[in-house]
Amino acid sequence: MPFNLFKEKAQENPAVIKHWRKNPKSIEKYQFVYNFLPNPDKKRRASLISNKAVFIYCSLIVIVTLAFRIIPKFAPGVLGYASNINVKDLLEYTNGKREEVGLSDLKLNSKLTLAAQEKAADMFKDGYWAHVAPDGAEPWDFILAQNYDYIYAGENLAKNFSTSKEVVEAWYKSPSHKSNLLGANYDEVGFAVVNGVLNGYETTLVVQMFGRPREPSMVASVYEEESVLKESVNNSTLEPVKGSQTSALESSSFSPSTVVSTPKVDMTLAAKSISLAFGGFVGSLLAIDMWYSRKKGINKFTGQTFAHIIILIVVIISVWFVLQPGIVL
Amino acid sequence: MMEDIKEHFVEYVALLIGMAVFVVLLVIYRFDKDALLIISGVGSAFYVAWGILHYVLRKRLTRTIVYEYVLFGILVFLLLFTVFSI
Questions:
Q1: Structure confidence at residue A297 (pLDDT)
Q2: Which value does ipTM take for this structure?
């Protein structure tokens, strides 16, 4: 509390100075409230939402964001993305999008599925995230390695997504991936959903390979599709692979249907929590500031508290409901 | 506060429209990280500009208020960036 205010209070009521002399702790308490409430004497906001405090919050957020980038280099697999992705749902959502525009459903092909799994395993093994491998291997090389003779082929990649629906929605929102998803030249598809540690982050890679066989008679039958899905269901839950590329390779020999990834620290939850904690804290103090200033008739020489609250509410809603992790390639 | 809003109704309507456009763009481009970076940057800059203009029109702009809006603009950008950059 400012010394002047202390003096004024004491002059107003001599009993106050007597009380404070006897209970010095009560002065600290009196001063402490101005961390949360606007100061009528200085005509300022609470200390915890002063410009200095907001600068400190910004610095802390930058430090945490940097920590998210640095930790994986020293402790691979600690940070990651929780996911629950399912081959059956990926196929259903993909065909759902095709049906919306009047295209025929894609059939699940075992060779394309194996090619997709080999591609996912290769990305974990060599630590890359691209259509073309560092050794120059292209998506078509993985497809041809499975003796799939095609006239048209394509590849969509996704990582760090939480659900199958988000993966297909993200592909659909991207023009180049959408052209694959709704490609009229494709009859068949293969999926790989594989967990592993990529560049220090535990994540789930999704590979989608499209194709049209040279011989129309080779198009996957309903029986083949069911057997691929059945095999997937038998290996439905795959525990997350931690820090080992070999394990990722081994896991890729399965055809996992539902891949559940539960890293030690879920990046999505951590980032959202940090953002909401800072935004919520500052927003709450601003709301208290507005209410208290009105109640006590304090006119401060500061920016528009109401506008700050509105923008923070918009940010909190966006962070909670709109922004989701995940990258498509 | 209500008097201020009534008196400068157009300014507040502009702010609300700007925020609505901001949210709509975030929804449309929620899977495009590059677009989210631009939208968040432009959205934050819009808020800083609105705040400064708000006080320029009242002839009450001070350096502290400029710092305040710049800091809130940075805070808004960082709160969004922390989530969409992961």
A1: 84
A2: 0.94
| CATH label, A87-235, candidates 3.40.33.10, 3.40.50.150, 3.50.40.10, 1.20.1630.10 | 3.40.33.10
- A265: tokens are 């620290």
Rounded Cα–Cα distance for residues A197 and A240 (Å) = 9
pLDDT in tens, B30-51: 888 889 999 999 999 999 999 9
Residue A248 has pLDDT above 80, yes or no: no
What pLDDT is recorded for position A83? Answer: 76
Structure token digits, residue A109 = 């092909």
The whole model's pTM is what?
A: 0.76
Mean predicted confidence (pLDDT) in A71-77 = 81
Put simply, the answer to whether B32 touches A173 (Cβ < 8 Å) is yes
Residue in chain B nearest A326 by alpha carbon: B31
Distance CA A150, CA B16 (A): 54
End-to-end CA distance of chain A: 57
CB contact under 8 A, B54 and A307: yes
- A57/B83 touch (CB, cutoff 8 Å), yes or no: no
Interface of A with B in 176-215 (CB under 8 A): none
Beta-bridged to residue A83, according to DSSP, are A261
Contact B31 A308 (CB under 8 A): no
Total count of domains within chain B: 1
Half-sphere exposure of residue A95, counting CA atoms within 13 Å on the CB side?
15
Q: Which residue has the higher pLDDT, B38 or A18?
A: B38
Q: What is the pLDDT of residue B37?
A: 93
B76 to A315: CB separation less than 8 angstroms, yes or no: yes
pLDDT band at residue A21, thresholds of 50, 70 and 90? Answer: confident
CB count in 10 Å sphere of residue A94: 26
Determine whether the interchain pair B65/A303 forms a contact, defined as Cβ–Cβ distance below 8 Å: yes
Q: Give residue B28's domain range.
A: 2-85
Tell me what pLDDT residue A322 has.
79
User: A278 vs B75: CB contact, 8 Å cut-off?
Assistant: yes
How far apart CA A139 and CA A117 sit, in angstroms, is 11
Q: How many percent of chain B have pLDDT more than 70?
A: 98
Out of B4, B23, B86, the one facing A318 most closely (by C-beta) is B23
Q: Which positions 8-67 of B are in contact with A (Cβ < 8 Å)? A: 15-16, 19, 22-23, 26-27, 29-33, 36, 47, 50-51, 54-55, 62, 64-65, 67
Which residue in the block uniquely carries the two structure tokens 């609470």?
A: A46
Residue in A173, A279, A325 nearest the CB of B86: A325
